[in-house]
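MOLECULE: protein
FOLLOWS: sequence and fold
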Amino acid sequence: MRSEFIERYDLRVPRYTSYPTAPHFGPSVDGAVYARWLGGLDPALPLSLYLHIAYCAEMCWFCGCHTRATKKYAPVADYLDALLAEARLVSRHLPARMKIDHVHFGGGSPTLLTPGDFGRTLAVLREYYNIPLDAEIAVELDPRTADEPYVAAMARAGVTRASIGVQDFDERVQRAINRIQPHEVTARVIGWLRAAGISAINMDLCYGLPHQTVASLLDTVDKAAALRPSRIALFGYAHVPWMKRHQRLIPEAALPGLAERWEQYEAAAARLAAHGYVAVGLDHFALPDDEMAKAHEAHALHRNFQGYTTDAAPVLIGLGASAIGALPQGYAANELAIDRYKEAVREGRLPVTRGIAVTREDRLRRAVIERLMCDMGVDLDEIALMHDVEADRFDGELDRLAPLEADGIVTRDGRRVTLTEEGRPLVRAVCAVFDKYLGQGAARHSKAV
């Protein structure tokens, strides 16, 4: 990336895992509204489930998730009981026992559950929902807390994909982010997964961490690629200590500067390509035979609160504290505080405390932003036709793209906008041009790269 305009596009913009984005959710969407939305769904629609396990064994200082550290299992077991009660409560508001195509366990750390409780969770979900044998069941896995019996329990329960958190293999970086995870620990868990028949494996890496250099990150990329996961996510560390107080424990002086973050991203992306991975969207890389690479090639990739996905289900049900659901009518977010979340569920109330009903204009702009994020380009004439609006609807936004075109971030052919390879890391800044909410309120976002 040319140095003369790196700082110009180093903006604080949303990650666009939804549109409108979460800072614009409000209290007008509560449990009663959510209940009506659930009851109004077409019984034939496929659903996806997201389960948020809001506990970890210890806090990683880089983490931006909503989680709580605990050394005791009793709070985890109590929370899981509430989550399963919410699953039952939601199912009672649905018009039928609806089909679930995707189940995703996130956190926190789902591997904090005992093997027995993990199996029980899937068994209970199958009571309330129609989860076919070929459904994708994905689990975010912490190699430091997963053991062989847990992996075996995952396989018995029908898990098809595991997403392994790594971030960086360099010991100095690991100490600075409070996540000590030797390479051999990760390699051993991947061996257990493959031996158990769970061959679809994702791996999360991170750039922009304290003490990282281009050379150390490339060493991490090489070690990760040698383990041959199906997908590798390369996220930029989002330093937001005003939102996540534990990030204040990270020495800011050790964080790489803006120019080096760019160098790290570009060098790591090039190295992943050299290892045979296909760039997917902004920050994902997949082997050519993986379903995500195929979806990207077919322009059938989607984006939700878990990031890039092949999941095309029009309804995502979020379960657990802070979980967010996406329905045709809008977004519904659960209570953040674990204790208040459990209290609501035990009183028989859907624990939704905020959200937003989407308008026709929101759906139109969401379609533009999703295609930009997933395809690195969008045909605005095509989007306008699909949404039955005039083709010149976005001419004002096209005018505002002129500086990005002049800088080589995008190219234009009529109303088709395409990110250049140099502009790929700045896709969120391009999406922001189409975001009518941006600048409203006091939301603070992470940097674009």
The chain has two domains: 1-20+359-449, 22-319.
